Amino acid sequence: NAGVTQTPKFRILKIGQSMTLQCTQDMNHNYMYWYRQDPGMGLKLIYYSVGAGITDKGEVPNGYNVSRSTTEDFPLRLELAAPSQTSVYFCASRPGQGRRGYTFGSGTRLTVV
Amino acid sequence: AQTVTQSQPEMSVQEAETVTLSCTYDTSESDYYLFWYKQPPSRQMILVIRQEAYKQQNATENRFSVNFQKAAKSFSLKISDSQLGDAAMYFCAYRSESWSSGGSNYKLTFGKGTLLTVNP
After folding, report:
1. C-beta neighbour count of A52 within 10 angstroms
2. Closest Cα to residue A44, out of A90, A93, A102?
3. First to last CA, chain B
4. % residues pLDDT > 70 (chain A)
5. I need a labelling partner for B102 at 20 to 30 A (CA). Which of A107, B62, B81, B96 fits?
6. Under an 8 A CB cutoff, do B35 and A31 touch?
């Protein structure tokens, strides 16, 4: 099925560990995004990409890194995990200019203990 | 910077009744998009309805409609004939355009959400 696929769905990390959240889309969308959703809050933008090889920071980029080597994949890297990074992470994509909206993945629930 | 405010943390409605969720936003832009997203317990973010600011006509999608008041910067969502499946968290979102080294980009700014309960 076409869409945005995120893995894993759940993960528990210890403080100081690192991990990569995977995101892939098969719709040939140029734009991809990473959001985090803290309890009782809306989504906040971490990083985004306007195409392969191009990434830029969003509102809350500290503690994260991204890369975009292909159109399909947009992994999010957490280095030295901290409890403040406990959140639900959403990847999203959209095709480009125009009225069509975002397609979201189903999210990754990350707990840092 | 744009801000989106949803003043109702929780709302409840009886099945088959109508409920209105409130959203206000702050912006200095004249052309923009507004959205309502639904997030059920599955966590999937589902687009419910969108409104283009330059259109005076309120958007409708089946049982969902909006009341868009541009001057008041208000964008409320009305759900008619509420169904049990409508129970979810609802987020209002504002889409702005920004420019960076990577070029043009649209950014969504979300409110904190309203949790809607539908009572049978």
Report:
1. 16
2. A90
3. 41
4. 95
5. A107
6. no
Q: Is the pLDDT of residue A97 over 80?
A: no
Distance in Å, alpha carbon of B40 to nearest chain A alpha carbon: 11
CA closest to A50 among chain B residues: B102
Beta strands A103-104; A108-112: pairing state: unpaired
CB proximity B111 to A under 8 Å = yes
How many Cβ atoms are within 10 Å of A4's Cβ, its own excluded? 22
pLDDT in tens, A2-48: 699 999 999 999 999 999 999 999 999 989 999 999 988 889 999 99
Place of tokens 């994949």: A73
Non-local CB neighbours of B114 within 8 Å, separated by 6+ positions: B6, B8, B9, B10, B11, B21, B22, B89, B90
Which residues in chain B land under pLDDT 70? 1, 98-104
> Does the beta-carbon distance from A106 to B52 stay under 8 Å?
no
